[in-house]
Amino acid sequence: MYYLDAPGEGTAASAEDQDPADGDAAGRPSPSSTPHRAGYTQVELTAPDAGYEFDLKAGKVVPAETATWFLARDAQSFVPSEESDSFVSDGEALTVPGCLHGIETKPVTSLPFSALAGERPFCVRSPDRRELAVVRLRRAAAAGPVTIVVDQYHLG
Predict the structure, then answer these.
(1) Is residue 4 over pLDDT 80?
(2) Which residues contact 103 (CB under 8 A, 6 or more apart)?
């Protein structure tokens, strides 16, 4: 006589048996399965100097230290808001799943203008992890204006 295990009983699937889109062994969703929708796309913003920052939630330029989720700048680099996560793409394209995967595997702590030349895409996740901005540096002058192009997404 043979007995079959009921569904969900018996041997557990190994990590190799799992579909990465279903999440990890602990049940956390994978970056590729994180639902998202666009908040705004291809918004070009120019901050005239370091007295202004990019409000990533609203998609506009605001006086420094007035936004909760922002991208500020100094003479040589971007400065994301505290508790934000960032990732710089190795290629020309950056998707939401690619960004989330990059944040989880290769996060960066600095965003120098020199590393972002040629509109190399990078992303910044909000401190509450509910929003994500994919950013491209269009132009930067050390003491002058900085222009970016931003796509913003709502996660979850």
Answers:
(1) no
(2) 85, 86, 87, 123, 125
